[in-house]
Specification:
The complex is a heterodimer of chains A (about 140) and B (about 70). With about 140 residues, chain A is mainly β. Chain A contains 2 helices and 12 strands; from the N terminus they run ββββββαββββαββ. In chain A, β4 and β5 form a beta hairpin. Chain A is globular. The chains are: A mainly beta (about 140), B mainly alpha (about 70).
């Protein structure tokens, strides 16, 4: 089982230039659906956020999710639901990750403190153009 | 179709389509040339999202949900 992996910062187009951001490829599972996605590792986010369209690709049913939660900032303008999904990344053992499934589209998948950072140790090495990810050790 | 023709055709796309094309190109080649991405991005478009840095209430609910799931196993 992989214990540590280095990912490159990846280019994202922004107005007038390109930003390099810590995007982590991972696979989310919900029954028969398992899309490969990229999550923006956001150490400043209190929670992980799943965009509405990505949840729909996973086959999630908005109306069937019973637990509403409230986000903040500009994400507060749309409702959100609490969900838990299985995620697998780069040979790491699968983990259960919680998400605020936002009704908003056109936003990145955010990997925040609860509970992505409870499951993985992240080391940002922007000066070297990479970040490392290691699963939580018991 | 030449590369120049592809770029010219990209200019005919809507702003949303050009964003989507840029995303697709990133998927094809994650080290896609920065200049190409810059030229494909619609002028004035922004990548707007604020981190929910203070969504502690939501974090508490999610934490509780995870604990309930662990306890149920």
């Amino acid at each position: 089982m992989t214990t540590l992996f280095a990912f490159p910062y990846r280019p994202v187009p922004i107005p007038g230039g390109v930003a390099r951001v810590p995007l982590m490829p991972l696979r989310l599972y919900n029954g028969a659906a398992w899309p490969d996605v990229d999550g923006l590792i956001d150490s400043g986010a209190a929670v992980s956020v799943l965009p509405f369209d990505m949840g729909a690709r996973l086959g999630l049913d908005w109306d069937a999710e019973p637990l509403s939660i409230r986000l903040t900032g500009n994400l507060a303008s749309q409702p959100a639901k609490a969900i838990i999904l299985t995620a697998e990344a780069n040979g790491f053992a699968p983990v259960r990750l919680s998400f605020a499934w936002s009704r908003m589209t056109g936003i990145p998948l955010l990997l925040g403190q609860t509970n992505f950072f409870d499951e993985f140790d992240i080391c940002f090495r922007r000066t070297r153009g990479q970040f490392t990810v290691a699963p939580r050790t018991p | 179709m030449s590369f120049a023709e592809v770029l010219a055709a990209a200019n005919e796309l809507t702003a949303d389509e050009r964003r989507e094309l840029a995303r697709e190109l990133r998927e094809i080649d994650r080290e896609t040339d920065d200049e190409l991405l810059r030229r494909l991005m619609p002028a004035g478009s922004e990548f707007e999202v604020w981190s929910p840095w203070d969504a502690y209430e939501a974090a508490g609910v999610l934490q509780q949900l995870l604990e309930q799931e662990r306890a149920a196993k």
